[in-house]
Amino acid sequence: MNLQKQILTLEMKAKLSTLWMFYLFNTIFRDIHEFIEPGFIEKAMTGTFNGTQITEQLLLFGGFVAEVPIAMVLLSRLLPYGTNRWANIIAAVVTLSFEINNGTTDLDDTFHMAIEMAALCFIIWSTWRWRNPAPKYYSTHQEA
Question: What pTM value is reported for the model?
Fold first, then answer.
């Protein structure tokens, strides 16, 4: 692979990793911002939140859901082209489905959710358009 193709691959990997970090910063800020909402802490301390009982299994499931974008920050930089491409598409679609189904109703959550969803859509779009800079087939035939 020539230097230009290596640079293009590194640039795309850095772009995807950065987009996942952007998504995570927005998600973390949105979650922290929830703590200052009046009554949030009291609701959480009851063991039931918005009608859903908070269980160890629910918290473990939430940990798995949160780990997907966290892992993609690293995996976007480490995985080879083909695996990287599909991992980003699948991870973004899965994460987007949880964003759509999170039941957000207030304005600040909606604002952050829109930004997060835009970042995930951009990850999907960028990765879908990403072409292999080093195709497996090289012509060994020399033109005369």
Answer: 0.81
